[in-house]
Amino acid sequence: MESLTGLRWFAALAIFLAHVNVFLPLPYTHGLFGLGVSGVTFFFVLSGFVLTWTMTPNDTTGYFLGRRFARVWPLLFLAIALPTLFAVTGNSADIDVPTFVLVGLASVVLIQAWVPGWILTGPSPVTWSLSCEAFFYVLFPLVAPAIVRRGLRQLLYLAIGLVALGWLIRVAVWIADPPTTAVSSADISSSSLSVLGTYAPPFRLVEFLLGVVVAAALRKGWRSPLRVWQAAALLAAGFLVLWLFRDAAWRSSVPYDAVNQVTAPLFALLIAAVATRDEDGKRSLLSSAPLVRLGRWSYAFYLFHFTVLVAVSSSVFPDKKVVDFFLDPVEPSWSHAGPAAIALLVSLALSALLYRIYEAPLERVLRRFFRRAAGRDDPAPPRPARS
After folding, report:
1. Nearest to residue 232, comparing CAs of 221, 242, 240?
2. Nearest-5° Cα angle at 22, 314 to 74
């Protein structure tokens, strides 16, 4: 299922564009690029799908968690360590160094998202999603086997229930904390219900479980009735609805946005369609060598693109802190296209280099270590997509 690896690249690129929309906004792209935040939802759904699809009956919790550690942690550590080192040793007059380091430590031990008010004050804000992934990994050995044992009808009801639960959470948050177009620092940097509902791991579990359910259905022989282009058209329709409401209060900022609730089931349908096509032995552009390569680089790209964008935008707006870009938005300008392109190229080059010399080699070494520690002589089964 290399097509799913290729698909990862588009999700990573969408997230990059969402952050370009914050740091180096271009004219007429605000409502479109802002939809890129849904790339995180895609990764959560895909993670649940891939882990369930590759699950084996004789796996152990320790061996599973060891493999996830090998996959996620080494690059995460580097993504936190480098900005922290620069902040501590450089000219950091505008940085609260103790808080910066504290949030960095929370990120390294994968608890950052449990205190959402820290997200924009640390070395790498995007690492909040890894805290959610760690929570998913801990729960996976407990919930996935139970889901896989369900019949297709039960899985359908469970999928519908998960989608409904996602909307119930969002509506409850709206009622408790009504959306507003006047976004303050408290709206994006506090531990308010809106922020918790967006970043705290338990609130994002629905997306991961949706991926688990889809993979469980495919393991039982179900095949998506949708072709890939039809699933993509449904996703495009969802994006169109969100774009049409781009100026509504409930879309004014990420903590109020229902983009996750709209796109999670649509991403699940797209993943199912792509997986079905690959299972039928059909090739596609997504499984081409260039896109698969970009998909393999996507984890490093995701972790480092924000740091690169901050560095590039700081050269354009030297008086702005990271949080200022969110509270006092920059005026869109075509002059930002050049710096944004530089940030993209630097992020790509860096991710390719890190994948080749650090991420992939270290993951192989750690996987070998955990395999031997678990008494496994056989290599881990091939995975349909990197997650």
Report:
1. 240
2. 75
What are the residue boundaries of the structural domains of the chain, listed by start?
2-373
Residues 6+ apart with CB under 8 A from 272: 214, 217, 218, 224, 226, 231
Which range, 54-68, 170-184, 222-236, has the best average confidence (pLDDT)? 222-236
Predicted confidence at residue 240, as pLDDT, reads: 97
Q: Indicate left, alpha or beta for 107 from its phi (over 0: left) and psi (-120 to 50: alpha).
A: alpha
Helices (H), 223-328: 228-244, 259-279, 289-316, 322-327
* Res. 184 pLDDT band, cuts 50 70 90: low
Cα gap 292→48, rounded to integer Å: 20
Helix axes 38-53, 128-148, angle to 10 degrees: 40
Closest CA relative to residue 272, chosen from 50, 54, 57, 68: 50
pTM to 2 decimal places: 0.94
- Across 172-188, average pLDDT: 77
**DSSP state, 332?**
P
**Helix, strand, coil in percent for the chain, rounding step 5:** 75, 0, 25
In the chain, the largest separation of any two C-alpha atoms, in whole Å, equals 60
Task: Tell me the C-alpha to C-alpha distance, in Å, between residue 147 and each of 59, 138, 154.
Answer: 16, 15, 9
Give the pLDDT score at 384: 47
Distance, first Cα to last Cα, the chain = 12
Evaluate whether 136 touches 45 at the Cβ level (below 8 Å): no
State the Cα–Cα distance between residues 142 and 64, nearest whole angstrom: 12
DSSP structural state of residue 110: T
Q: Is 385 left (phi over 0), alpha (psi -120 to 50) or beta?
A: beta
Between CA 132 and CA 137 the distance in angstroms is: 9
CB neighbours (10 Å) of residue 249?
15
